[in-house]
Amino acid sequence: MAGFQFDPAQLSQELQAFNQQLAQSYQTLSEIREVDVWQTPKTEIYRQDKLRLYHCPAQGEQRCTTPLLISYALVNRIYMIDLEPERSLLRRLVEGGLDVYLIDWGHPDRADRFLDLDDYLNDYLNNCVDQVCQHTNSDQLNLLGICQGGTFSLCYSALHPQKIKNLITMVTPVDFHTPDNMLSALARYVDTDLAIQCYGNLPGELLNQTYASLMPMALGVQKHLDMPGQLQNTTQALSFLRMEKWLEDSPDLAGEAFREFFEQFFKQNLLIKGEAMIGGQRVDLKQITQPVLNIFGSHDHLVPPAASQALKQACGSKDYEALELAAGHIGVFVSGKAQTIVAPKILNWLQLRNQG
Amino acid sequence: MSEFYQQMESWLHTQQQYWQQLASSAPLDTLTSATTPVAMAELISRLGSQGEQFRRFGENLLQQASLNQPLDTQLDAFVSYIQQQQTDLLLRRWQLPEPIISMLRGQNLLDSQLTPFGDSLKAVLATALPGVTASQRARMLAGAELYTQYQQALREYLIQANQINLQARDQLAETLNTAEPPINSLTELHQHWSRHYDSAYREAVFTDSYQQAYGNISNALMQLQSFIQQWRDEQYEQAGLVSLPLFDQVLKQQQQLRKQLRKQQQENLRLQQQLAQLQAAPWQPMMEQMQAQIDQIAHQLAAFSHKDDA
User: Residue A220 and residue B89: Cβ atoms within 8 Å?
Assistant: First the structure.
């Protein structure tokens, strides 16, 4: 084994360095009392059941008169886009002069077991859209959806096109059966009805385990081994812990909504076929004729680029633009590129389409 | 041997320094105390156990290197150490939740070690047992059958996992034969292993056999959990308590009523808007209709005049 050479003295040094790092990690962790996230100023303007709608007013000169509503996936919390001031897509948008509204779907419990996609889109999301329009005295708004929230935004725009002026999707699956989609491959033989019968609402922890299992070593053993390196000082450690806090903060998924989404989108890929049904209405993506900006990561292991790129052919917009970022699923909104490329792109794209 | 003793002495010195440093920094018990956020306590526990495994393996490797063990043996030791961690993780993921294990034990469906019982227990259950009714026996048999299916699914899944391990090991061995510059740190070795393992895993996920094994273990675990829940629900109902299915039924009705109410509210709103429009400009719909008719006539006239010109 010519490519494998162990020098005991060097190994001893390596272990010593690891031990020192580990000891320092404990020291750093002992100094941290609170892991604060979601620091951009916000005001709650509407609540319905467990949902909360927040307003983050534009700072400085307002760049766009049409408000922006951001919808995230049901499975994680929206403060992903505002983990800390230096890594905050939200802050960059607000500082750039956008009036931003955020939907926090909340944590469903057993009483929400029968909430379906119709409730999430035609009730909750629709009410949020109306509230934002009322709050800003507008007829329309700009909608930005992230991940599953992007798929929801597409469905909503197709069902209520008159309410959406411009649509932005980020890391959004559209074609769920591209050959590189690991989640769909894993889901193939899993019995959805049995899952709902067994759990009621699908536990967020279970979904987290599934996501982590897509890269079992990188997100398992290797991540734990690299951890001491991330905990050498409080600033660095807080950055790491904020992300961990977000990862752990996974709401359960309302049972019926999960069943519909999993069956129609993951298993049968009905969205791209134009056959998905929500509240008795067919979702036809060709109804989306407003400008569309589609942002995705070339290294996304959860939503492969091809799954997002399919939107170009599927929607009816003549003003379609794609932005591919050399980043993973989460890197698209928390990395340095999210601050220097994504936020300015969104600001400029919306500003150009503000009139008319 | 003197070299070996020298290395061990140096290592003991290193260890001493490490424990002194640890002792002078924050005591571990304060890190997991009530003041520490729950997620952080979990993080500290993971950090500690992973660090401990890494250190222990490093020590073993150091010892093997000192004893001039061949590199092949060292590689096997590495793979076995990391495979053990991976298998532990998988077993934790797919094991039955503790309340179910307790319930199975309570019903004598499981011995204390969670070992396979399959056919032998089924044979016992097939005979009449004192104090056990026929329906109870049938229920116990059904449970035993589901448990056997779960164990079978777990075995098949672990076979798939083992194949991934073997493939990753082969790929790592190939890298170790050719890496330039040579790999000479434990950290690097881990990184290479992670890369090869995740690549082998990704390949496996797209095979039908892995997807089936994954589906089978997921479904078998859920079936067993559902079975126990049904059993518990029946007992609740017999005791006059509200079972989960009854509770769900009420929730479902409530949800349907809520939906109806929403649709009626939306319809009311639409009618109110129409009414407001009519009240604001009562002649508007008639004017719009007349305008449309005038436009149509104008259009026809224009077409007629074009035809005439031609």
Answer: yes
Q: How confident is the model over B287-309, as a mean pLDDT?
A: 86
The dihedrals phi and psi of A99, each to the nearest 5 degrees, come to -85, 110
Collapsing DSSP states into helix, strand and coil, what is residue A168?
Answer: strand
**Total structural domains within chain B:** 3
Nearest by CB: B179 against A3, A35, A213? A3
Encoded tokens for B58? 């490093």
Could you tell me if B189 and B235 lie in one domain?
yes
B264 and B173 in one domain?
Answer: no
ipTM for the predicted complex: 0.91
Residues in B touching A25 (Cβ below 8 Å): 47
Q: Whole domain around residue B290: which residue ranges? A: 257-303
CB A315 within 8 A of CB A288: yes
Residues B109 and B210 grouped into a single domain: yes
CB A296 within 8 A of CB A332: yes
- Has residue B85 been placed in a domain? no
Task: Report pLDDT digits (tens) over B96-112.
Answer: 766 666 655 555 544 43
* Cβ contacts of B226 on chain A, cutoff 8 Å: 194, 197-198
Alpha carbon B94 to its chain's center = 8
Q: Which contiguous run of DSSP H or E holds residue A55?
A: strand A51-56
Does position B32 have pLDDT exceeding 70, yes or no?
no
Q: Which of A64, A128, A147, A155 is catalytic?
A: A147
- Residue B75 maps to a domain: no
CA dist A132 and A59 (Å) reads 18
Say yes or no for a CB contact (<8 Å) between A3 and B176.
yes
B233-244 pLDDT, tens digit per residue, is 988 888 999 899
B94 vs A69, more confident: A69
Q: Is A198 part of the annotated catalytic residue set?
A: no
Domains of chain A, start order:
43-352 (3.40.50.1820)
Please name the member of A1, A8, A23 whose beta carbon is closest to the beta carbon of B65: A8
Q: Which of B73, B117, B65 is nearest to A7 (CA)?
A: B65
Question: Which residues from A are below 8 Å from B22, CB to CB?
Answer: 22-23, 26
Which among A5, A10, A19, A159 is the top mutation candidate for probing chain B, defined by the most B β-carbons within 10 Å of its own β-carbon?
A19
Strand-pairing partners, residue A143, are A69, A167
Residues of A whose CB is below 8 A from B198: 215-218
Q: Is 0.80 surpassed by the pTM of this model?
A: yes
Return the biggest CA–CA distance within chain B.
117
Q: For B166-175, what is the mean pLDDT?
A: 92
From A114, A186, A248, residue closest to B39, measured CB to CB: A248
